[in-house]
Amino acid sequence: MESGKQLSGTLALAVFTAALGSLQYGYSLGVINAPQRIIERHYSRALGVLPQNLTRSNDTEEEELHPSVVMYWSLSVAIFSIGGVASSFLVGFVGDLRGRIKGMLMINVLAITASLLMGLARMGPPHLMVITGRAVMGFYCGLSSGLVPMYIGEIAPVAYRGALGTLHQLAIVTGILISQVLGLDFLLGNDTMWPLLLGLSGAPAVLQTLLLPLCPESPRYLYIKLGKEEEACKSLKRFRGEYDASKDMAEMKKEKEEAMKEKQVSIITLVCSSAYRQQLAVALMMHLSQQFSGINAIFYYSTSIFLKAGVSKPVFATIGVGVINTIFTMVSVLLVDRAGRRTLILIGLGGMCCCAVAMSVGLVYQATFSWMSYVSMSAIFLFVCFFEIGPGPIPWFIVAELFSQGPRPAAIALAGCCNWTSNFVIGMCFPYIEALCGSYVFIIFAVILLGSTVFTYCRVPETKGKTFEAITAEFQRRRRHRQVPPDAKAATELHHLKSSSEA
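The structure assignment produced for this chain is given below.
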Protein backbone atom coordinates (compact mmCIF):
# COMPACT_ATOMS: atom_id res chain seq x y z
CA MET A 1 0.00 0.00 0.00
CA GLU A 2 1.26 3.48 -0.82
CA SER A 3 2.11 5.57 2.23
CA GLY A 4 -0.30 8.36 3.16
CA LYS A 5 -3.10 7.44 0.75
CA GLN A 6 -5.09 4.97 2.83
CA LEU A 7 -8.68 5.66 3.82
CA SER A 8 -9.81 3.43 6.67
CA GLY A 9 -13.01 2.98 8.62
CA THR A 10 -11.35 4.51 11.68
CA LEU A 11 -10.40 7.63 9.70
CA ALA A 12 -13.97 7.92 8.36
CA LEU A 13 -15.38 7.55 11.88
CA ALA A 14 -12.98 10.16 13.29
CA VAL A 15 -13.77 12.72 10.57
CA PHE A 16 -17.53 12.11 10.88
CA THR A 17 -17.37 12.43 14.66
CA ALA A 18 -15.36 15.66 14.55
CA ALA A 19 -17.66 17.12 11.87
CA LEU A 20 -20.65 16.71 14.21
CA GLY A 21 -19.30 19.81 15.96
CA SER A 22 -19.53 21.68 12.65
CA LEU A 23 -23.07 20.36 12.07
CA GLN A 24 -24.04 21.79 15.44
CA TYR A 25 -22.42 25.13 14.52
CA GLY A 26 -24.45 25.31 11.29
CA TYR A 27 -27.68 24.34 13.06
CA SER A 28 -27.12 27.03 15.69
CA LEU A 29 -26.47 29.62 12.96
CA GLY A 30 -29.73 28.94 11.14
CA VAL A 31 -32.16 27.85 13.86
CA ILE A 32 -32.96 31.29 15.27
CA ASN A 33 -34.42 32.74 12.04
CA ALA A 34 -37.59 30.72 11.34
CA PRO A 35 -39.37 31.11 14.71
CA GLN A 36 -38.50 34.80 15.11
CA ARG A 37 -42.07 36.13 15.28
CA ILE A 38 -43.19 33.41 17.67
CA ILE A 39 -40.25 33.93 20.03
CA GLU A 40 -40.79 37.71 19.96
CA ARG A 41 -44.38 37.10 21.02
CA HIS A 42 -43.21 35.04 24.02
CA TYR A 43 -40.72 37.76 24.89
CA SER A 44 -43.56 40.32 24.79
CA ARG A 45 -45.71 38.19 27.09
CA ALA A 46 -42.87 37.64 29.59
CA LEU A 47 -42.05 41.36 29.64
CA GLY A 48 -45.74 42.30 30.02
CA VAL A 49 -45.88 44.35 26.81
CA LEU A 50 -48.11 42.07 24.70
CA PRO A 51 -51.40 43.79 23.78
CA GLN A 52 -54.34 41.94 25.32
CA ASN A 53 -56.28 41.76 22.04
CA LEU A 54 -53.55 39.74 20.30
CA THR A 55 -54.52 36.09 20.22
CA ARG A 56 -52.96 34.88 16.98
CA SER A 57 -49.27 34.70 16.15
CA ASN A 58 -49.93 36.29 12.75
CA ASP A 59 -50.99 39.50 14.46
CA THR A 60 -47.51 39.88 15.88
CA GLU A 61 -46.16 40.51 12.40
CA GLU A 62 -48.46 43.52 11.97
CA GLU A 63 -48.04 44.87 15.51
CA GLU A 64 -45.18 47.24 16.15
CA LEU A 65 -42.88 45.57 18.65
CA HIS A 66 -42.08 47.18 21.98
CA PRO A 67 -38.51 48.59 22.05
CA SER A 68 -37.55 46.23 24.88
CA VAL A 69 -38.61 43.21 22.76
CA VAL A 70 -36.55 44.47 19.83
CA MET A 71 -33.55 44.91 22.13
CA TYR A 72 -33.82 41.43 23.64
CA TRP A 73 -34.35 39.82 20.23
CA SER A 74 -31.33 41.63 18.75
CA LEU A 75 -29.28 40.46 21.72
CA SER A 76 -30.53 36.88 21.21
CA VAL A 77 -29.12 36.92 17.66
CA ALA A 78 -25.92 38.93 18.25
CA ILE A 79 -24.82 37.23 21.49
CA PHE A 80 -24.04 34.07 19.52
CA SER A 81 -21.30 35.83 17.53
CA ILE A 82 -20.01 37.63 20.62
CA GLY A 83 -19.59 34.27 22.35
CA GLY A 84 -17.75 32.95 19.31
CA VAL A 85 -15.35 35.90 19.23
CA ALA A 86 -14.59 35.51 22.94
CA SER A 87 -13.82 31.79 22.77
CA SER A 88 -11.97 31.70 19.46
CA PHE A 89 -8.81 32.95 21.22
CA LEU A 90 -8.88 29.86 23.45
CA VAL A 91 -8.77 27.29 20.62
CA GLY A 92 -5.02 26.77 20.85
CA PHE A 93 -5.07 26.56 24.64
CA VAL A 94 -7.91 23.99 24.73
CA GLY A 95 -6.43 21.96 21.86
CA ASP A 96 -3.02 21.74 23.54
CA LEU A 97 -4.26 21.35 27.12
CA ARG A 98 -5.40 17.73 26.93
CA GLY A 99 -5.30 17.01 23.21
CA ARG A 100 -7.73 17.43 20.33
CA ILE A 101 -10.06 14.55 21.32
CA LYS A 102 -10.34 15.46 25.02
CA GLY A 103 -10.63 19.12 24.05
CA MET A 104 -13.72 18.39 21.92
CA LEU A 105 -15.12 16.22 24.73
CA MET A 106 -14.63 18.98 27.31
CA ILE A 107 -16.42 21.67 25.33
CA ASN A 108 -19.45 19.45 24.69
CA VAL A 109 -20.49 20.27 28.26
CA LEU A 110 -21.06 23.82 27.02
CA ALA A 111 -23.20 22.68 24.08
CA ILE A 112 -25.40 20.42 26.19
CA THR A 113 -25.82 23.14 28.84
CA ALA A 114 -26.81 25.65 26.14
CA SER A 115 -29.36 23.29 24.58
CA LEU A 116 -30.97 22.64 28.00
CA LEU A 117 -31.23 26.37 28.69
CA MET A 118 -33.00 27.00 25.37
CA GLY A 119 -35.06 23.80 25.41
CA LEU A 120 -36.44 24.67 28.87
CA ALA A 121 -37.07 28.34 28.01
CA ARG A 122 -40.76 28.08 29.00
CA MET A 123 -39.76 27.28 32.61
CA GLY A 124 -38.10 30.65 33.15
CA PRO A 125 -38.12 34.09 31.58
CA PRO A 126 -37.79 33.02 27.92
CA HIS A 127 -35.75 36.05 26.88
CA LEU A 128 -33.13 35.42 29.57
CA MET A 129 -33.05 31.65 28.99
CA VAL A 130 -32.64 31.99 25.22
CA ILE A 131 -30.03 34.77 25.43
CA THR A 132 -27.98 32.84 28.00
CA GLY A 133 -28.26 29.63 25.96
CA ARG A 134 -27.24 31.41 22.76
CA ALA A 135 -24.24 32.99 24.50
CA VAL A 136 -23.03 29.63 25.83
CA MET A 137 -23.66 27.98 22.45
CA GLY A 138 -21.71 30.74 20.69
CA PHE A 139 -18.84 30.20 23.13
CA TYR A 140 -18.93 26.47 22.26
CA CYS A 141 -19.07 27.10 18.50
CA GLY A 142 -16.10 29.48 18.64
CA LEU A 143 -14.02 26.65 20.11
CA SER A 144 -15.50 23.95 17.90
CA SER A 145 -14.98 25.90 14.66
CA GLY A 146 -11.24 25.91 15.45
CA LEU A 147 -10.77 22.45 16.97
CA VAL A 148 -12.60 20.54 14.20
CA PRO A 149 -10.50 21.81 11.24
CA MET A 150 -7.35 21.47 13.37
CA TYR A 151 -8.02 17.81 14.18
CA ILE A 152 -9.17 16.86 10.67
CA GLY A 153 -6.21 18.67 9.09
CA GLU A 154 -3.76 16.80 11.33
CA ILE A 155 -5.17 13.31 10.79
CA ALA A 156 -5.93 13.53 7.04
CA PRO A 157 -3.53 11.91 4.53
CA VAL A 158 -1.90 14.48 2.23
CA ALA A 159 -3.74 13.16 -0.83
CA TYR A 160 -7.16 13.61 0.79
CA ARG A 161 -6.50 16.55 3.10
CA GLY A 162 -8.51 18.99 0.98
CA ALA A 163 -11.55 16.77 0.56
CA LEU A 164 -11.66 15.83 4.24
CA GLY A 165 -11.05 19.45 5.28
CA THR A 166 -14.00 20.58 3.14
CA LEU A 167 -16.30 18.32 5.18
CA HIS A 168 -16.21 20.96 7.95
CA GLN A 169 -18.05 23.42 5.68
CA LEU A 170 -20.32 20.65 4.33
CA ALA A 171 -21.39 19.86 7.89
CA ILE A 172 -22.05 23.57 8.57
CA VAL A 173 -24.31 24.05 5.53
CA THR A 174 -26.05 20.73 6.26
CA GLY A 175 -26.75 21.97 9.78
CA ILE A 176 -28.17 25.23 8.40
CA LEU A 177 -30.41 23.28 5.98
CA ILE A 178 -31.67 20.95 8.74
CA SER A 179 -32.54 23.95 10.92
CA GLN A 180 -34.40 25.59 8.02
CA VAL A 181 -36.47 22.46 7.36
CA LEU A 182 -37.24 21.75 11.04
CA GLY A 183 -38.12 25.42 11.47
CA LEU A 184 -41.10 25.14 9.12
CA ASP A 185 -44.38 25.99 10.82
CA PHE A 186 -45.90 22.52 10.48
CA LEU A 187 -42.82 20.86 12.04
CA LEU A 188 -41.12 22.59 14.99
CA GLY A 189 -41.27 26.29 14.06
CA ASN A 190 -44.59 26.89 15.80
CA ASP A 191 -45.90 28.29 19.06
CA THR A 192 -45.77 24.93 20.84
CA MET A 193 -42.54 23.34 19.63
CA TRP A 194 -40.08 26.24 19.29
CA PRO A 195 -38.20 25.45 22.55
CA LEU A 196 -37.58 21.91 21.24
CA LEU A 197 -36.37 23.39 17.93
CA LEU A 198 -33.75 25.48 19.78
CA GLY A 199 -32.94 22.70 22.26
CA LEU A 200 -32.12 20.23 19.48
CA SER A 201 -29.01 22.30 18.74
CA GLY A 202 -27.23 20.21 21.39
CA ALA A 203 -28.19 16.81 19.91
CA PRO A 204 -24.99 16.46 17.80
CA ALA A 205 -22.91 17.08 20.95
CA VAL A 206 -24.56 14.11 22.68
CA LEU A 207 -23.77 11.82 19.73
CA GLN A 208 -20.24 13.21 19.45
CA THR A 209 -19.63 12.58 23.17
CA LEU A 210 -20.50 8.91 22.66
CA LEU A 211 -18.27 8.52 19.58
CA LEU A 212 -15.16 10.54 20.50
CA PRO A 213 -13.71 7.87 22.87
CA LEU A 214 -13.59 5.53 19.85
CA CYS A 215 -11.42 7.97 17.84
CA PRO A 216 -7.59 7.99 18.02
CA GLU A 217 -5.76 11.15 19.08
CA SER A 218 -3.97 13.21 16.42
CA PRO A 219 -0.57 11.57 15.65
CA ARG A 220 0.97 15.01 15.14
CA TYR A 221 -0.16 16.11 18.59
CA LEU A 222 1.11 12.91 20.20
CA TYR A 223 4.54 13.07 18.59
CA ILE A 224 5.31 16.74 18.07
CA LYS A 225 3.63 18.11 21.19
CA LEU A 226 4.05 15.23 23.66
CA GLY A 227 7.03 13.37 22.17
CA LYS A 228 5.19 10.01 22.26
CA GLU A 229 6.68 8.45 19.14
CA GLU A 230 5.35 4.92 19.65
CA GLU A 231 1.81 6.09 20.40
CA ALA A 232 1.88 8.40 17.37
CA CYS A 233 2.93 5.49 15.13
CA LYS A 234 0.10 3.33 16.50
CA SER A 235 -2.36 6.17 15.93
CA LEU A 236 -1.18 6.56 12.33
CA LYS A 237 -1.73 2.86 11.67
CA ARG A 238 -5.19 2.98 13.23
CA PHE A 239 -6.11 5.79 10.86
CA ARG A 240 -4.56 4.34 7.69
CA GLY A 241 -4.33 0.61 8.20
CA GLU A 242 -1.14 -1.45 8.26
CA TYR A 243 1.44 0.36 6.12
CA ASP A 244 4.99 1.61 6.26
CA ALA A 245 4.64 4.71 8.45
CA SER A 246 8.34 5.62 8.28
CA LYS A 247 7.82 8.42 5.73
CA ASP A 248 5.09 10.10 7.80
CA MET A 249 7.06 9.65 11.01
CA ALA A 250 10.15 11.15 9.36
CA GLU A 251 8.11 14.18 8.26
CA MET A 252 6.77 14.67 11.78
CA LYS A 253 10.26 14.21 13.24
CA LYS A 254 11.60 16.95 11.00
CA GLU A 255 8.67 19.20 11.91
CA LYS A 256 9.29 18.51 15.62
CA GLU A 257 12.96 19.42 15.24
CA GLU A 258 11.99 22.68 13.58
CA ALA A 259 9.41 23.38 16.31
CA MET A 260 12.02 22.77 19.05
CA LYS A 261 14.26 25.45 17.56
CA GLU A 262 11.68 28.13 18.26
CA LYS A 263 9.86 29.17 21.41
CA GLN A 264 6.18 28.39 21.98
CA VAL A 265 4.31 30.56 19.48
CA SER A 266 1.63 32.65 21.16
CA ILE A 267 -0.88 34.84 19.33
CA ILE A 268 1.18 37.96 20.17
CA THR A 269 4.37 36.29 18.90
CA LEU A 270 2.58 35.19 15.75
CA VAL A 271 1.35 38.70 15.01
CA CYS A 272 4.71 40.36 15.72
CA SER A 273 7.03 37.84 14.03
CA SER A 274 8.12 38.59 10.47
CA ALA A 275 8.72 34.86 9.96
CA TYR A 276 4.97 34.16 9.82
CA ARG A 277 3.79 37.43 8.30
CA GLN A 278 3.08 36.10 4.81
CA GLN A 279 1.22 33.00 6.01
CA LEU A 280 -0.79 35.09 8.47
CA ALA A 281 -1.74 37.65 5.81
CA VAL A 282 -3.00 34.88 3.52
CA ALA A 283 -4.90 33.13 6.35
CA LEU A 284 -6.64 36.28 7.57
CA MET A 285 -7.47 37.47 4.05
CA MET A 286 -9.07 34.11 3.27
CA HIS A 287 -11.42 34.51 6.23
CA LEU A 288 -12.08 38.20 5.60
CA SER A 289 -12.95 37.54 1.96
CA GLN A 290 -15.27 34.72 3.05
CA GLN A 291 -17.30 36.91 5.41
CA PHE A 292 -17.11 40.24 3.53
CA SER A 293 -18.05 38.55 0.26
CA GLY A 294 -21.70 39.30 1.07
CA ILE A 295 -22.84 35.71 1.50
CA ASN A 296 -24.65 36.47 4.78
CA ALA A 297 -26.19 39.54 3.18
CA ILE A 298 -27.45 37.34 0.34
CA PHE A 299 -29.24 35.10 2.84
CA TYR A 300 -30.54 38.18 4.64
CA TYR A 301 -31.91 39.70 1.41
CA SER A 302 -33.05 36.55 -0.42
CA THR A 303 -36.56 36.35 1.10
CA SER A 304 -37.27 39.97 0.11
CA ILE A 305 -36.07 39.36 -3.46
CA PHE A 306 -38.13 36.20 -3.78
CA LEU A 307 -41.19 38.10 -2.55
CA LYS A 308 -40.66 40.84 -5.17
CA ALA A 309 -40.27 38.14 -7.82
CA GLY A 310 -43.76 36.87 -6.99
CA VAL A 311 -42.78 33.72 -5.08
CA SER A 312 -45.80 33.00 -2.87
CA LYS A 313 -43.82 30.92 -0.34
CA PRO A 314 -40.40 32.61 -0.06
CA VAL A 315 -39.46 30.37 2.88
CA PHE A 316 -39.35 27.38 0.54
CA ALA A 317 -37.26 29.33 -1.97
CA THR A 318 -34.85 30.15 0.85
CA ILE A 319 -34.69 26.44 1.73
CA GLY A 320 -33.94 25.89 -1.98
CA VAL A 321 -30.94 28.17 -1.56
CA GLY A 322 -29.90 26.00 1.39
CA VAL A 323 -30.16 22.87 -0.77
CA ILE A 324 -28.00 24.46 -3.49
CA ASN A 325 -25.59 25.48 -0.72
CA THR A 326 -25.22 21.86 0.40
CA ILE A 327 -24.99 20.35 -3.10
CA PHE A 328 -22.19 22.62 -4.25
CA THR A 329 -20.24 22.07 -1.03
CA MET A 330 -20.31 18.39 -2.01
CA VAL A 331 -18.99 19.40 -5.43
CA SER A 332 -16.12 21.19 -3.69
CA VAL A 333 -15.34 18.01 -1.72
CA LEU A 334 -14.90 16.17 -5.03
CA LEU A 335 -12.88 18.93 -6.74
CA VAL A 336 -10.60 20.38 -4.07
CA ASP A 337 -7.89 17.70 -4.29
CA ARG A 338 -8.05 17.64 -8.09
CA ALA A 339 -8.39 21.25 -9.19
CA GLY A 340 -6.50 22.65 -6.18
CA ARG A 341 -7.30 25.19 -3.48
CA ARG A 342 -6.03 28.30 -5.25
CA THR A 343 -7.88 27.53 -8.49
CA LEU A 344 -11.21 26.94 -6.76
CA ILE A 345 -10.89 30.10 -4.65
CA LEU A 346 -10.13 32.17 -7.76
CA ILE A 347 -13.10 30.68 -9.66
CA GLY A 348 -15.36 31.18 -6.65
CA LEU A 349 -14.39 34.79 -5.91
CA GLY A 350 -14.46 35.80 -9.59
CA GLY A 351 -17.86 34.19 -10.13
CA MET A 352 -19.27 35.82 -6.99
CA CYS A 353 -18.03 39.22 -8.17
CA CYS A 354 -19.93 38.83 -11.46
CA CYS A 355 -23.04 37.64 -9.59
CA ALA A 356 -22.90 40.65 -7.24
CA VAL A 357 -22.89 42.97 -10.28
CA ALA A 358 -25.80 41.04 -11.81
CA MET A 359 -27.64 41.24 -8.48
CA SER A 360 -27.22 45.03 -8.42
CA VAL A 361 -28.44 45.41 -12.00
CA GLY A 362 -31.44 43.19 -11.25
CA LEU A 363 -32.37 45.17 -8.13
CA VAL A 364 -31.94 48.58 -9.79
CA TYR A 365 -34.12 47.72 -12.82
CA GLN A 366 -36.55 45.36 -11.06
CA ALA A 367 -39.29 48.02 -10.94
CA THR A 368 -38.74 48.93 -14.61
CA PHE A 369 -38.55 45.45 -16.11
CA SER A 370 -40.48 42.67 -14.38
CA TRP A 371 -38.15 40.00 -15.77
CA MET A 372 -35.23 41.57 -13.91
CA SER A 373 -36.49 39.91 -10.74
CA TYR A 374 -35.51 36.58 -12.28
CA VAL A 375 -32.03 37.96 -12.95
CA SER A 376 -31.79 38.72 -9.22
CA MET A 377 -33.05 35.23 -8.32
CA SER A 378 -30.58 33.56 -10.67
CA ALA A 379 -27.77 35.71 -9.28
CA ILE A 380 -28.62 34.53 -5.74
CA PHE A 381 -28.43 30.86 -6.69
CA LEU A 382 -25.22 31.28 -8.71
CA PHE A 383 -23.65 33.42 -5.97
CA VAL A 384 -24.20 30.61 -3.47
CA CYS A 385 -22.84 28.03 -5.95
CA PHE A 386 -19.60 29.95 -6.49
CA PHE A 387 -19.24 30.58 -2.74
CA GLU A 388 -19.41 26.90 -1.86
CA ILE A 389 -17.02 25.86 -4.64
CA GLY A 390 -14.09 27.59 -2.96
CA PRO A 391 -14.40 30.69 -0.71
CA GLY A 392 -16.80 28.93 1.67
CA PRO A 393 -15.02 25.70 2.65
CA ILE A 394 -11.34 26.29 1.86
CA PRO A 395 -10.46 29.06 4.40
CA TRP A 396 -11.44 26.75 7.26
CA PHE A 397 -8.77 24.14 6.54
CA ILE A 398 -6.13 26.04 4.55
CA VAL A 399 -4.97 27.76 7.77
CA ALA A 400 -3.94 24.36 9.17
CA GLU A 401 -2.01 23.73 5.94
CA LEU A 402 -0.18 27.06 5.93
CA PHE A 403 1.37 26.71 9.41
CA SER A 404 3.61 24.12 11.04
CA GLN A 405 2.72 22.47 14.35
CA GLY A 406 4.23 25.23 16.52
CA PRO A 407 2.23 28.26 15.37
CA ARG A 408 -0.80 26.30 14.05
CA PRO A 409 -3.05 26.55 17.17
CA ALA A 410 -2.40 30.29 17.52
CA ALA A 411 -2.99 30.85 13.79
CA ILE A 412 -6.28 28.92 13.83
CA ALA A 413 -7.40 30.87 16.90
CA LEU A 414 -6.57 34.22 15.29
CA ALA A 415 -8.20 33.28 11.97
CA GLY A 416 -11.29 32.06 13.84
CA CYS A 417 -11.54 35.32 15.77
CA CYS A 418 -11.20 37.24 12.49
CA ASN A 419 -14.01 35.15 10.96
CA TRP A 420 -16.36 35.54 13.92
CA THR A 421 -15.69 39.27 14.27
CA SER A 422 -16.29 40.02 10.59
CA ASN A 423 -19.42 37.84 10.71
CA PHE A 424 -20.70 39.94 13.61
CA VAL A 425 -19.84 43.21 11.82
CA ILE A 426 -21.71 42.16 8.68
CA GLY A 427 -24.72 40.97 10.68
CA MET A 428 -24.94 44.24 12.59
CA CYS A 429 -24.07 46.69 9.81
CA PHE A 430 -25.70 45.26 6.67
CA PRO A 431 -29.27 46.47 7.40
CA TYR A 432 -27.95 50.03 7.84
CA ILE A 433 -25.72 49.86 4.75
CA GLU A 434 -28.63 48.45 2.73
CA ALA A 435 -30.89 51.28 3.95
CA LEU A 436 -28.23 53.82 2.92
CA CYS A 437 -27.25 52.34 -0.46
CA GLY A 438 -30.53 50.68 -1.47
CA SER A 439 -30.32 48.62 -4.62
CA TYR A 440 -26.64 49.47 -5.09
CA VAL A 441 -25.55 47.71 -1.88
CA PHE A 442 -24.06 44.70 -3.67
CA ILE A 443 -21.70 46.93 -5.68
CA ILE A 444 -19.76 47.29 -2.40
CA PHE A 445 -19.41 43.51 -2.18
CA ALA A 446 -18.46 43.32 -5.86
CA VAL A 447 -15.53 45.70 -5.21
CA ILE A 448 -14.44 43.67 -2.15
CA LEU A 449 -14.65 40.44 -4.16
CA LEU A 450 -12.59 41.94 -6.99
CA GLY A 451 -9.88 42.97 -4.53
CA SER A 452 -9.96 39.51 -2.91
CA THR A 453 -9.57 37.86 -6.32
CA VAL A 454 -6.49 39.98 -7.13
CA PHE A 455 -4.97 39.24 -3.71
CA THR A 456 -5.55 35.49 -4.13
CA TYR A 457 -3.97 35.52 -7.59
CA CYS A 458 -0.88 37.39 -6.38
CA ARG A 459 -0.29 36.00 -2.89
CA VAL A 460 -2.01 32.66 -2.22
CA PRO A 461 0.11 29.57 -3.03
CA GLU A 462 -1.24 26.20 -4.11
CA THR A 463 -1.12 23.72 -1.20
CA LYS A 464 -2.63 20.71 -2.98
CA GLY A 465 -0.62 17.54 -2.41
CA LYS A 466 2.13 19.31 -0.45
CA THR A 467 3.36 18.36 3.02
CA PHE A 468 3.25 20.93 5.84
CA GLU A 469 7.05 21.06 5.61
CA ALA A 470 6.98 21.84 1.86
CA ILE A 471 4.38 24.60 2.31
CA THR A 472 6.39 26.22 5.11
CA ALA A 473 9.57 25.99 3.01
CA GLU A 474 7.83 27.77 0.12
CA PHE A 475 6.94 30.73 2.32
CA GLN A 476 10.50 30.83 3.65
CA ARG A 477 11.82 30.97 0.07
CA ARG A 478 9.41 33.81 -0.71
CA ARG A 479 10.56 35.71 2.37
CA ARG A 480 14.25 35.28 1.52
CA HIS A 481 13.53 36.30 -2.06
CA ARG A 482 11.90 39.50 -0.85
CA GLN A 483 14.72 40.24 1.59
CA VAL A 484 17.67 39.37 -0.69
CA PRO A 485 17.13 39.98 -4.42
CA PRO A 486 18.72 37.16 -6.45
CA ASP A 487 20.61 39.38 -8.90
CA ALA A 488 21.62 42.93 -9.65
CA LYS A 489 18.61 43.52 -11.89
CA ALA A 490 16.21 42.59 -9.13
CA ALA A 491 18.11 44.84 -6.72
CA THR A 492 17.87 47.75 -9.17
CA GLU A 493 14.14 47.21 -9.64
CA LEU A 494 13.64 47.05 -5.90
CA HIS A 495 15.59 50.29 -5.42
CA HIS A 496 13.56 51.92 -8.19
CA LEU A 497 10.24 50.83 -6.63
CA LYS A 498 11.37 52.10 -3.23
CA SER A 499 12.36 55.45 -4.70
CA SER A 500 9.00 55.69 -6.49
CA SER A 501 7.07 54.98 -3.31
CA GLU A 502 9.00 57.61 -1.36
CA ALA A 503 8.58 60.25 -4.03
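Interim note for the steering committee: Residues 1-5, 54-62, 488-503 have pLDDT under 50 and may be disordered. The two ends are 61 Å apart (CA to CA).
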